[in-house]
Write a structure and sequence with these properties.
23 helices, two-stranded antiparallel ribbon, mainly alpha
């Protein structure tokens, strides 16, 4: 049962006890109340989206019910590999962060936060930096660091804290692991005949993109800090089951099997084997980050740092409790993607946005179009496959900046992740909250950051 289901309102009032809500706090509280009342569970959302896309494809694209069912069924299992990768992001990230070394490191960092405001700012900054480096790492480490801060600063509003940790995820597609700019920079990518190769120096490291990232990184911690003044109901970390917080008790092995399960030699040998591959991979590629190598690194560092197979497996058992939502939601989103692409609905939506754009406004229009499509197709790579072949030829025809339009797709995808419960599932599983507990605060971040990103894509040099 989620916290909101149990009625966390037993503790109410302002989180720090001395701030007036003001206009901003009142607006934040109003949005939070709306979300609390009307936002259903993420699985219900994906079922409603499935029905909506099914009906829309029939109504606007002329597809028959049989065709839509076929598109849905054919696409249903297309994200199995990615689903497994996402579950491993959560499990291996949790396992690594639960090792004694990382617990002490996060505890040391968290000890510098003495007030709720400091905790909010710290978790936002850490999540922003980690997400810019790699989206999977940021998604997990932000939530885990928030849990630790919740323990160290028990007076902080835990809902705002977790929302702040998740909000840092917004910069991922403008960072080093952004799937759109990395795909556009890859030899032989599916758009190469249309746009050629767009190097990362024109996308990720372009001045306009770096300024947008910097602006969001400055604004978001302050914005999240302001949300502490909301006048609504609050919850403390102590009200949530955060799992065990110990390094495990020494176990006296009696049987040969128990001795193997608690053998440091087995863990060290296996961990060093994995690190050997990582070293070879780094020498060959310079440690080119992708989701597989990130999971591989987390996995074998976890094995090594937990010390024994038994402690590692105990941590895995705790981590897998949170993957259920991802496990069941991914096939449904894959089915939605199948209907969107197969019926032509995604293309029609993008073409409608492009129809009233100019060379100057195309990046802004593309940004909003990507934001809308992302709600239905929450996959950066999948979204580029849908929108790239429409937006990039339009950029060429209108004489718009192709790299900027490509990054507009990337930023639009990342932007509405703030209100897409699908991507919040790993963080929520770690935090012990439900989507409705944080989405009201994320909605505030969506409105403000949308204005910043949109202006940056339109007017920055």
């Amino acid at each position: 049962m989620s916290v909101s289901d149990e009625g966390y309102g037993k503790a109410s009032g302002r989180p720090d006890g001395n701030e007036s809500p003001g206009v901003f706090g009142t607006i934040t509280s109003a949005l939070d109340r709306v979300v609390q009342r009307y936002l259903p569970d993420p699985f219900v959302i994906v079922m409603l989206l499935t029905i909506f896309v099914f009906a829309t494809g029939i109504a606007f694209e002329g597809a028959t019910p049989a065709q839509m069912v076929n598109h849905w069924g054919e696409g249903f299992w297309n994200l199995l590999q990615f689903a497994m990768q996402m579950m491993l992001v959560l499990v291996t990230g949790f396992v690594l962060a639960s090792t004694p070394v990382f617990k002490r490191a996060m505890g040391w960092m968290a000890s510098y936060a003495k007030t709720p405001a400091q905790a909010i700012v710290m978790v936002t900054v850490v999540a922003l930096i980690a997400s810019w480096v790699n989206w999977g790492f940021g998604l997990v480490i932000g939530a885990l660091f928030a849990r630790e801060l919740g323990r160290k600063v028990p007076s902080v509003d835990y809902r705002v804290l977790i929302a702040s940790a998740y909000s840092g995820f917004i910069v991922w597609h403008g960072g080093l692991s952004g799937s759109v700019p990395l795909t556009a920079a890859t030899e032989g990518n599916f758009m190469v005949d249309t746009i050629g190769i767009i190097p990362a120096s024109e996308t990720i490291f372009a001045p306009f993109n770096l300024i947008i990232v910097a602006a969001v990184a400055i604004l978001l911690p302050l914005l999240n800090r302001m949300m502490l003044s909301h006048s609504g109901e609050t919850i403390k970390a102590g009200d949530v089951d955060l799992g065990r917080d110990d390094d495990g008790e020494d176990f006296v092995a009696k049987t040969p099997a128990e001795k193997l399960e608690n053998s440091r030699v087995v863990s060290i040998a296996t961990g060093l084997l994995g690190l050997g591959y990582i070293l070879a991979y780094t020498i060959e590629t310079g440690y080119a980050l992708n989701i597989n190598i990130l999971n591989f690194t987390f996995l074998f560092l976890g094995i090594l740092l937990h010390g024994t197979p038994r402690r590692f497996l105990d941590s895995v058992s705790e981590a897998v409790k949170g993957v259920g939502g991802i496990l069941i939601a991914f096939p449904f989103y894959a089915g939605i993607m199948g209907m969107m692409i197969g019926s032509g609905l995604a293309a029609s939506m993008s073409e409608w946005f492009v129809s009233f754009a100019s060379a100057t406004t195309l990046p802004l229009v593309t940004f909003f179009a990507a934001g809308v499509v992302n709600v239905l197709v929450p996959s950066g790579g999948g979204q580029w496959a849908v929108q790239g072949p429409i937006m990039m030829p339009a950029a060429i025809e209108l004489g718009a900046d192709q790299a900027r339009v490509a990054m507009a797709v990337a930023w639009g995808d990342a932007w509405t992740n703030l209100i897409q419960p699908f991507w919040a599932l790993p963080a929520l599983a770690i935090a012990g909250l439900s989507a409705r507990d944080i989405m009201g605060f994320c909605l505030v971040s969506l409105i403000v950051t949308g204005a910043v990103i949109g202006l940056g894509l339109t007017f920055l040099p």
